[in-house]
Write a structure and sequence with these properties.
It contains 1 helix and 7 strands. The protein is mainly beta. The protein has a single domain, classed as Pleckstrin-homology domain (PH domain)/Phosphotyrosine-binding domain (PTB) (PH-domain like, Roll), CATH 2.30.29. Strands 4-3-2-1-7-6-5 form a 7-stranded antiparallel sheet, covered by helices on one side. A hairpin with a 2-residue loop joins strand 5 and strand 6.
Length: 110
Protein backbone atom coordinates (compact mmCIF):
# COMPACT_ATOMS: atom_id res chain seq x y z
CA UNK A 1 0.00 0.00 0.00
CA UNK A 2 1.60 3.26 -1.12
CA UNK A 3 0.50 6.74 -0.16
CA UNK A 4 1.72 10.25 -0.77
CA UNK A 5 4.20 11.44 1.83
CA UNK A 6 2.28 14.60 2.77
CA UNK A 7 -0.44 12.87 4.80
CA UNK A 8 -1.37 14.75 7.97
CA UNK A 9 -2.44 11.51 9.66
CA UNK A 10 -2.73 7.87 8.68
CA UNK A 11 -3.85 4.64 10.24
CA UNK A 12 -3.57 1.01 9.17
CA UNK A 13 -6.64 -1.19 9.45
CA UNK A 14 -9.17 -3.09 7.39
CA UNK A 15 -12.14 -2.11 5.25
CA UNK A 16 -15.54 -3.36 4.11
CA UNK A 17 -16.68 -1.88 0.78
CA UNK A 18 -19.74 -2.61 -1.36
CA UNK A 19 -23.46 -2.16 -1.91
CA UNK A 20 -24.29 -2.95 1.75
CA UNK A 21 -22.90 -5.00 4.64
CA UNK A 22 -23.85 -8.34 3.06
CA UNK A 23 -22.77 -7.46 -0.51
CA UNK A 24 -19.33 -6.05 0.22
CA UNK A 25 -15.69 -6.98 -0.16
CA UNK A 26 -13.68 -7.23 3.06
CA UNK A 27 -9.98 -6.52 3.50
CA UNK A 28 -8.79 -7.42 6.98
CA UNK A 29 -6.04 -5.71 8.96
CA UNK A 30 -3.39 -4.72 7.77
CA UNK A 31 -4.55 -4.56 4.18
CA UNK A 32 -6.19 -1.11 4.24
CA UNK A 33 -5.11 2.36 5.24
CA UNK A 34 -6.93 5.62 5.84
CA UNK A 35 -4.97 8.77 5.03
CA UNK A 36 -5.95 12.32 5.94
CA UNK A 37 -4.61 15.07 3.69
CA UNK A 38 -5.21 18.80 3.84
CA UNK A 39 -8.29 18.70 1.58
CA UNK A 40 -9.06 15.01 1.10
CA UNK A 41 -9.51 11.63 2.72
CA UNK A 42 -8.08 8.53 1.04
CA UNK A 43 -9.02 4.91 1.74
CA UNK A 44 -6.47 2.60 0.20
CA UNK A 45 -6.46 -1.18 0.07
CA UNK A 46 -4.87 -3.86 -2.05
CA UNK A 47 -7.91 -3.90 -4.37
CA UNK A 48 -8.80 -0.20 -4.77
CA UNK A 49 -8.12 3.38 -3.75
CA UNK A 50 -10.97 5.78 -2.91
CA UNK A 51 -10.31 9.51 -2.72
CA UNK A 52 -12.86 11.84 -1.12
CA UNK A 53 -12.59 15.61 -1.21
CA UNK A 54 -13.79 17.15 2.06
CA UNK A 55 -16.88 18.51 0.26
CA UNK A 56 -17.78 14.98 -0.94
CA UNK A 57 -17.90 13.51 2.59
CA UNK A 58 -21.42 13.85 4.02
CA UNK A 59 -20.78 12.21 7.36
CA UNK A 60 -18.35 9.92 9.16
CA UNK A 61 -19.86 7.88 11.98
CA UNK A 62 -19.04 4.92 14.19
CA UNK A 63 -20.09 1.56 12.87
CA UNK A 64 -20.41 -1.51 15.10
CA UNK A 65 -20.82 -5.11 14.05
CA UNK A 66 -20.24 -8.17 16.24
CA UNK A 67 -17.16 -7.25 18.32
CA UNK A 68 -15.63 -4.85 15.78
CA UNK A 69 -15.74 -1.09 15.62
CA UNK A 70 -15.02 1.10 12.64
CA UNK A 71 -15.95 4.32 10.91
CA UNK A 72 -18.49 4.47 8.12
CA UNK A 73 -17.78 7.04 5.41
CA UNK A 74 -20.94 8.44 3.84
CA UNK A 75 -20.26 10.35 0.63
CA UNK A 76 -21.77 11.94 -2.48
CA UNK A 77 -19.71 10.20 -5.18
CA UNK A 78 -22.05 8.20 -7.42
CA UNK A 79 -19.24 6.08 -8.90
CA UNK A 80 -18.19 4.75 -5.47
CA UNK A 81 -19.96 2.01 -3.49
CA UNK A 82 -22.54 3.32 -1.01
CA UNK A 83 -21.23 1.23 1.89
CA UNK A 84 -17.67 2.03 3.01
CA UNK A 85 -16.37 1.17 6.49
CA UNK A 86 -12.79 1.45 7.73
CA UNK A 87 -12.00 -0.87 10.66
CA UNK A 88 -9.44 0.33 13.18
CA UNK A 89 -7.96 -0.68 16.51
CA UNK A 90 -8.05 2.97 17.66
CA UNK A 91 -11.27 4.57 16.42
CA UNK A 92 -11.23 7.43 18.99
CA UNK A 93 -7.77 8.56 17.81
CA UNK A 94 -8.93 8.45 14.20
CA UNK A 95 -12.13 10.40 15.01
CA UNK A 96 -10.06 13.06 16.76
CA UNK A 97 -7.69 13.41 13.79
CA UNK A 98 -10.63 13.68 11.37
CA UNK A 99 -12.34 16.32 13.55
CA UNK A 100 -9.11 18.33 13.87
CA UNK A 101 -8.97 18.43 10.08
CA UNK A 102 -12.60 19.56 9.64
CA UNK A 103 -14.12 16.31 8.35
CA UNK A 104 -17.78 15.82 9.38
CA UNK A 105 -17.49 13.30 12.22
CA UNK A 106 -20.75 12.46 13.99
CA UNK A 107 -20.48 12.49 17.77
CA UNK A 108 -20.88 8.95 19.14
CA UNK A 109 -23.80 8.33 21.48
CA UNK A 110 -23.32 6.59 24.81
Amino acid sequence: MKARSDAIFSQTGGCHVGRNFWWAFNASWPFAGLFIYREELVLSSFFRRYTFLRSQVSRISRYHVFLSQGLRIEHTIDAYPRFIVFWSFDVPELEEALSRNAFPVATPTI
